[in-house]
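hey so i finally got around to running the thing on that chain from the lab meeting. sorry it took forever, my laptop kept dying and i had to restart like 3 times. anyway pasting the input first so we r on the same page abt which one it is
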Amino acid sequence: MHAFKRDILYAVRDLEQDEPPKGLAIKRVLERDYETVHHSRLYQNLSQLVTSGLLEQGRKNGRTNEYETTNATRRMLEASTRQRAEQLGIAATGGDA
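ok and heres what got predicted. didnt touch it at all, straight out
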């Protein structure tokens, strides 16, 4: 998986703690690390993540899409985070670890 898609998944996971995020909220989070995130690049990757089953897409008001991670995606992100923490010698806290 490309870093940009991985970063989208982490952004959605972070934002969905409050409510399922819309594309513009995801874009704002990504722009903390990427100087510019073009609309077409973001939505093309969001669509691919939905198609691959890593994100679920819903409609907020019949017009605006919102996104959520799947259970499998959450498990994948947690495992990846634990692995990175171990590689860096950082003790993992919480979760099943």
